[in-house]
Every structure is written in structure tokens, then in C-alpha cells.
Task: structure prediction
Amino acid sequence: MTDISSAFDGGNIRLVAAEGDRVDLEIVKDHQSDFYQWFYFRVTGAKGRPLSLRILNCAGAAYPHGWTGYRACISYDRDEWVRADTTYEGGVLTVSVTPEADSLWVAYFAPYTMEMHHDLVAEVAGQPGVQYRSLGKTLDGQDMDYLRIGDGPLKVWLYARQHPGETMAEWWMEGALERLVDTSDPVTRVLRRRCTFHVVPNMNPDGSRRGHLRTNAVGTNLNREWHDPSAERSPEVLCVRNMMDETGVDFAMDVHGDEAIAANFLAGFEGIPSWTERQQKAFDRFAAELVRLSPDFQTRQGYEVAKPGQANMSMSTAQLAERYGAVSMTLEMPFKDNSDLPDETYGWSPDRCRLLARSCLDALHAILDDLPARG
Result:
């Protein structure tokens, strides 16, 4: 008998009905929010059966345009995630799969659970020259994990997964941290000598564990809180921004995923009130270096650039550029694939996230002289 479950770390789905090989499902909304799009569930007892897994409420999801051209991720061992045949029609997303075993895992993107997060933090925190600190507690009582690496004058902040369903952001973070603790790497050695890295691998532990797409435990979109965070609604942002006030910020990257655009791209701070040519020059050079370094990155597609004085100051990238004079940016990666360099088996994948992180560190190395340390 086919069974569906999601009562695990990061899980999200609701069974509506099962009739033969057709299983009807719905994605559950984030708690105290109307956002939903992330799904992660297990199918058992269906080996060899041609299943039609139909998610019925996709038309009302946060980004319905993201379903066109999208293919779901499936795994038998939760290590290798491949893409499955997926169609979207009439508001229904249908994943067609004949399981090769009696246990199959299905997800919006390769999950990065809180247990995986704890393993990553434990491994990195034990490396030479790495300092660990909990910046505070979330509303569910989880730690806000923070890692400090290097001892240089440039203050570099890397933070990811404000939106918990964007799990590619923590796969990227895994790649960045793996490189930053590899002291045999000459680029790493220079970066750690010239920069101090302040790293928050997961900005939204509560949403991650609860299986949310975009919000924390009380339905707050953290990337709309940076102008006025509070202990009641957004303690995650409050404790991180307080730490930034202590350290200052010269360069910052906020790592995300985008549902609709099948490409990797950057979003900047062009509309902030105190925009400077110095900031823009460094941002543009970073983007140019990343294009040169990685075939998986491009600058043709992306978000509309804010006009002067019209930046959304509640978002971290704009707030950090204004508050600290930082060169700050949002990196967006696709849920689908890089349409310029598609991979039929894996689509955009954890391995490609990790590799892009390495290229981002190479690009940062290339522009260090454009980043004078600020007080």
C-alpha cells in the first residue's frame, strides 16, 4: 500500500486522496503566512508502480510562474538527487515516477535539513582558526550559529537561507566553508590574511525545520525586516544585525534561490540614498570576474534595477550598503536549472551550488583592492 509522510525535519506535504497509482497532494502554507511552495515528502510501498503524484494547489503558490519548466527532485538515499518527469497544467503539478524501491523521497530542491546544518557547523567550528558563537535564539529556541574565519582588516559577511525553502543557499554555503577552512589553498590563504569572514550559514533555522518556504516560526519574511528588526517578529535578523554593528561590513553576500528565472544572477543596491561610484564599481567588477570564472554565472537575466532613491530598505542588501557603506549583493540561484548550461539528470544541483561558491571566493579575491576597509 502506498503511503505518504512528511513528519520529519524540513518535511512539507498533505495527503488529499490516493486512488490506485494516482496520489493527490497539497503543499502546506508556512505557519501564520500565506506563503507556500516548498515540498518535501516520502513515498513508501510503491516499488515498480507508475505513480502520478499530483500537487493540486500549485496555482496559489507564492510564485506560480516558477512551475513552468520545473522538474521535481527525487532520491532513494537522500544523497543523490535527480530530476523526475514533471508537468504543470491547470494549476496542478504532476510528478510521474515509477519507484525503483519501496522508499522514495521527493522534494522541491535537494533538502538541507537542520541535522545537516548541525553537522556542517560542527565540522567547520572544529577547524584551526575558526571561532564559533551563538548570536542568540530563534523563536523556537534554536541557536543562531555564527562562524568567524580569518584575521584580516576587510570585514566580509556571508549569510544564507533567510528564506528556508531556498536550500540551494546552504549548499552554496557548504562549498564556501569547505574552501575557507582549506589552508592548503593559496586563494584561501590570501583571503584569510586580508579578510575576516563572518558567516551565518542558516538565517532561518525555525522555518527550515518546519518545512517553510519563506518565513520564520511566526510567519515573518526575514528579508523584509532589516530596517527595523524586533525580538518578537524577527530575532534572527536582530541578533545578526547587532553583530554587524559591532564588526562593520565592507563586503556582504546574501545567498538565495529564485523560483522562476533559470539562471544564476546578482541583485545589488543601486537605489539606496547614499549610493557611491566606489560601491558600484566594486559590485560591477565582482560580477564581471564571476562571469569570467564560472560558466554557470551570467548578467543578462535578473531583477529590475531600482531607480535612484527607490531601493527597498527593508531588504538586507540595500540596508547593509546604506548602513555600513558596504559592497553588498544578493546571489540568486535557480530551482530549475541554468538554461545556458542545462543538465538533464540533475538540473541545478548541490554540486553546482558548491562549485559556484568557490568561484565567488575567487571573484572576491580578484577585487580585494577595490574594497578598502572601513571603520
